[in-house]
Design brief:
Elements (H helix, E strand, L loop, with lengths): L6 E4 L7 H12 L4 E3 L14 H9 L1 E5 L8 E2 L3 E4 L3 E2 L4 E2 L14 E4 L2 H15 L4 E4 L10 H4 L1 H10 L4 E7 L5 H4 L7 E7 L2 H7 E2 L4 H13 L4 E8 L5 H16 L5 E7 L4 H10 L13 E5 L5 E5 L1 H18 L4 E5 L1
Parallel strand pairs: 1-2, 1-3, 3-8, 5-9, 9-10, 10-11, 11-13, 13-14, 14-17
Antiparallel strand pairs: 4-5, 6-8, 7-12, 15-16
The structure holds iron/sulfur cluster.
The site of iron/sulfur cluster has 10 residues, from β7.
Length: about 350
Amino acid sequence: MQIASHQFFFEKEALNYPAGKKAYDLIKKEGRRIEFLPSHNRVTGIPGSVPQEAFFHGKNTIVIGIRRTLDFAGCKPSAHFQLPLVTGCPGMCEYCYLNTQLGKKPYMRLYVNVDEILARAAAYVEARRPEITIFEASATSDPVPGERYTGALARTVEFFADQEHGRLRFVTKFPAIDSLLELDHRRHTRIRFSLNTAKVVDKYEHRTPPLNTRLQALARILKHGFPGGVIIAPVIMNEGWEEEYNELLELIKNYLTGYPDITFEIISHRFTARARSNIMAVFPDTTLPMDESVNRRFKYGQFGYGKYVYTEDKLKSMKRFFEDKISSLMPDAKIEYII
Ligand code: SF4
């Protein structure tokens, strides 16, 4: 299958914003072709008539535009609200939750009206004062790969530095965080890295950086005083899982020792029937464990559709395992949740 290298589409109004201008200049400088979209909601011109082709071309497409909806969705359990700076991600993780959310051509959309988005965030913070309000910038994306074009995350980190009652957090698998390191963040932004066993990374997380690269990036942000964290998701409980996750935690420990403000979030593998059929269409040879008759139970989700999660017994042993290991290896780290 022939897949074009990145395609870039712009909404015309994007050029009225500094972040849009920055992206345009950079893409031009790199000698890439830019097309302008006739209207906001119609991204036409991404090739691909069969699911695999559509998926891969979508993943190679970046749309630069304006965020029109400024009502932020909730974001349990990691934050109060989603902060929409980006949707989509160029990574191709087989299990990715975005695979059912972004349609057949899952392009990445970078929003350039950053100040309008942040003004809205400030209003949400104001409404909840004196409570602290936490915003998650990676609920519908990995926001790091697009950062070089817009600088939206850097602007957002600086904005939250000034928010007495607002905090930012995001999670990434990508190491391109160096533009954030020297910012005056005042420890109001928590950057977490999504990690998994070498086997899971290798088998399922296509087009993402290797484990050591992510750990080195995590070490860099910690060294620059950012609160940090680790998300291990999805935990896949195949044969030998305890040994493999133990190895991962031992490795993580080497990078985290000496830093006091570290959080862990652990999420077991789950899938919906719809996700499974989308995954099978794009990755027909997938080995993700998606047989609902093996170690699974059906659970109704908060949005009305059901998902297959591990059985109670399996989940209990997973919780025990991570609680024991994390508390013995990294006693200062805080486990936020294990689900
Ligand atoms: S890196 Fe994260 S957002 Fe990107 S494809 Fe993988 S799981 Fe999805």
